[in-house]
Amino acid sequence: MNKRITTEQLRGSLERQLSGLKPDPLLARRVMASGRVSARKPRLLRPVLVLAVLMALTGAAYAVTALYRVVNWQGGITRTVAPPQTPDRGAAAGGARDAGEALASFISEIPDDETVFAWIEGDDGLIARSELHKKQKAFSSHEAFAQYMAGSPYLTAPSQLPDETLDYYAATAYMECKAFGAYAQTGNGQAGPVRYTRFLIDDESAVATGYSLVLTLADGSCLRIESGLREASSEEPLMLREGETAEKVAVSGMSDALLIRSADPASPDGLIMRRKLSDPAKLKLLPLNDHLEPGDGVCYTEEYITVWLHNRKDPQLLLRLFSGA
Predict the structure, then answer these.
(1) Which terminus, N or C, of the chain has the lesser number of Cβ atoms within 10 Å?
(2) Over the stretch 271-295, which tens digit does the pLDDT of each residue have?
């Protein structure tokens, strides 16, 4: 591979892979550390699209002149900030949208067992947009997912699901390479405007470093849970809109947790948590640059979990998911 991938570009792609929706007026301003999202497999498209529409409509109804309140892990307000403005860039915006669609289409066709870094270059020859597809494993039942997660040394799965009929369930675990494992490069090439480099991780070297879980209930409510490892999380994890509150709560096994409630029936309530790892996760960097040494890697020290409940106000349900009480 002859293109130099910066640490920032790779980190951005890693963070985007752990989030299930593209930025929208709701989540992009709420979870400060979240980023743009790569496409999911077709089996997850229906609930994701429903959520995206719901949240886009919710966010659009909110006055853009309102200030957001930044909170810390104690639930205290640290400062206020203005919402980000989205400039109308005309042709540039259309070009970015086309690039995003091309990447999403390419990523959606990658087999689950492959790790692929894909990018589109700008007119200047530099990387304009990129996505990372991680080796992954999909589950259609919580029994199978829970059994798989029981062997995870780093991630925390929900200990209890709602005691109700599920209309839909889909979970996906995402994997990276252990520090003493190996990425095997299987090729690189170009598909239309998308350039790519492909890798395989053998099962012995692979370890789960994140997951996404979506389920819908018979009453029309929807839960989305995301977990991922981080080097460190921000001490200011959220921005609250008018009518939203953050309450510090205790959740078994978690170092910190915030219960987010919204007075707006159309806005989701949430639970944001972090857990400091007793043993840091030491992983190998994806070998995208020739200058990387064999021992170069990353060390994750925290697990970061977000839970959002749509179309239902039930804070106790959110707390029961991980406490089991």
Answers:
(1) C
(2) 999 999 999 999 999 888 766 565 5
